[in-house]
């Protein structure tokens, strides 16, 4: 699957930020930080991962979904991809 270079760059940057956030969450837990702060950071990571997934799906929809015999995307596969991020 070939994605748009700008989209790939944006997704990679987002994932690198997520990587840093996860390291921060681990340090927060090791330092005994308040659970509210930890959960807030976990929620931020979750949203960032969702956005990365949605960006990939939006950019590469035609490549991600196998076209049926009529040339239209397989609706069941499309639904499965979207639900995997829900």
What does this protein structure show overall?
With 86 residues, the chain is mostly helical. It starts with a helix and ends with a helix. It has 4 helices and no strands. The mean pLDDT is 84.
Keywords:
86 residues; mainly alpha; 4 helices; 0% strand
- Strand % is under 5%
The end-to-end span amounts to 22 Å
Ranges with pLDDT <50 over ≥5 residues?
Answer: none
What sort of overall outline do the alpha carbons produce when their principal axes are compared? elongated
The biggest beta sheet reads: none
Helical run tally: 4
Element pattern in H and E = HHHH
The value of Rg in angstroms is 17 Å
What proportion of the residues is helical, as a percent range? over 70%
Task: Give the strand tally.
Answer: 0
Mean pLDDT: 84
Structural class: mainly alpha
SSE topology:
Elements lengths: L4 H26 L4 H25 L1 H4 L10 H10 L2
Helix pairs in contact: 1-2
Compact overview of the structure:
Helix content is 76%, strand content 0%. The chain is mostly helical.
């Amino acid at each position: 699957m070939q994605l748009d270079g700008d989209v790939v760059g944006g997704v990679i940057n987002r994932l690198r930020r997520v990587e840093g956030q996860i390291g921060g969450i681990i340090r927060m837990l090791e330092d005994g930080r308040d659970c509210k702060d930890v959960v807030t950071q976990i929620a931020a990571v979750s949203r960032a991962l969702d956005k990365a997934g949605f960006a990939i799906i939006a950019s590469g929809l035609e490549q991600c979904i196998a076209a049926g015999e009529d040339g239209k995307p397989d609706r069941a596969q499309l639904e499965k991809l979207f639900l995997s991020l829900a």
